[in-house]
Write a structure and sequence with these properties.
The longest helix is centred in the N-terminal third of the chain and has 13 residues, at 61-73. The chain is of the alpha/beta class and 251 residues long. The radius of gyration is 20 Å and the shape is globular. The strands form two sheets. It has a five-stranded parallel sheet, sandwiched between helices. It has a five-stranded mixed sheet with strand order 6-7-10-8-9. It folds into two domains: 4-109, 3-Layer(aba) Sandwich (Cobalt-precorrin-4 Transmethylase, domain 1), CATH 3.40.1010; 114-227, Tetrapyrrole methylase, C-terminal domain (Methyltransferase, Cobalt-precorrin-4 Transmethylase, Domain 2). The chain has seven helices and ten strands. A hairpin with a 7-residue loop joins strand 8 (187-192) and strand 9 (200-205). The mean pLDDT is 94. Bound molecules: S-adenosylmethionine. Residues 12-13, 38, 82-85, 88-90, 113-114, 165-166, 191-196, 220-223 line the site of S-adenosylmethionine.
């Protein structure tokens, strides 16, 4: 039995994007509690025979943590699977707080987040010198309110690379806001269930973001990356510039 409950970021969906550490934990689990609405079932194929698999999409926080506590105290190795990286919109804090009150130790294993796989599919660097050196990971306000200082308008003012999670339902308002700060031709990577068997990505322009999303009926599991850094080949980094000296190349 593992003496901790492990929260595992399983990445965006493709099992080959699991870390070795995550894979090892999944293989050894007696009980897997998993976010079935956001994780493809084939991630569970790595589990051993007889592993109990509990879906969380219809459970409350109290029900989820109660089952974790009971199984753990029954001597089972319990793992909790989250999509992408657990630190991003994972709602792990509230689970961990309850488990810690029960004196249960926790381990968190990071995973590849949705924005990373979407950028990778388009060979995109989101931090290009003189264009932007910043990536904002955020969401459009919906039923979960945004803190006042983090309105999309305030974030868009930076003109950085901006990744929108959980925002397909709010694409109309998001596009309107973003167009106040980004040129209409700014490139947007849109990804639906990226790296799932039925997933895809597309490169569009900001001015088409709403129409595209409606045409594709996007509501869930969609990532948007709005970035002035995409499709710009003019700028190069200092790191590989012959005129730039650093620790590993000082001549
Ligand atoms: C509850 S959040 C969790 C994010 C996750 N922790 C991560 O790091 O990617 C769920 C949102 O993440 C994004 N997402 C997660 N997996 C995705 C995928 N495979 N393709 C596109 N978007 C994804 C979508 O915006 C989805 O609505």
């Amino acid at each position: 039995m593992d003496k901790k409950i492990c929260f595992i970021g399983v990445g965006p969906g493709d099992p080959e994007l699991l870390t070795l550490k995550a894979l090892k934990k999944i293989k050894s689990a007696d009980v897997i509690i998993w976010t079935d609405s956001l994780i493809p079932e084939k991630i569970l194929d790595f589990s051993k025979e007889g592993t109990e698999k509990i879906k969380t999409s219809s459970l409350t926080l109290e029900q989820i943590t109660l089952v974790m506590i009971k199984k753990f105290h029954a001597g089972k190795t319990v793992v909790r699977l989250h999509d992408g990286d657990p630190c991003l919109f994972g709602a792990i804090k509230e689970q961990i707080e309850i488990l810690k009150k029960e004196k249960i130790e926790i381990e968190v294993i990071p995973g590849v987040s949705a924005f990373q796989i979407a950028a990778a599919y388009h060979e995109a660097e989101l931090t290009v010198p003189d264009i932007t050196q910043t990536i904002i990971l955020t969401r459009a306000g919906g039923r979960t309110c945004m803190p006042e200082k983090e309105s999309l308008k305030d974030l868009a003012k930076h003109n950085s690379s901006l990744c929108l999670y959980l925002s397909a339902r709010h694409v109309k308002k998001s596009q309107e806001t973003l167009l106040q700060f980004y040129p209409p031709e700014t490139k947007v990577i849109v990804g639906f269930r990226v790296s799932w068997d039925d997933g895809w990505t597309s490169l569009i322009e900001l001015k088409d973001m709403e129409k595209f999303s409606i045409d594709k009926k996007l509501i869930r599991t969609t990532i948007y990356i709005i970035s002035p850094a995409i499709s710009n080949s003019q700028n190069r980094s200092n790191l590989y510039n012959p005129s730039y000296r650093h620790l590993f190349r000082n001549k």
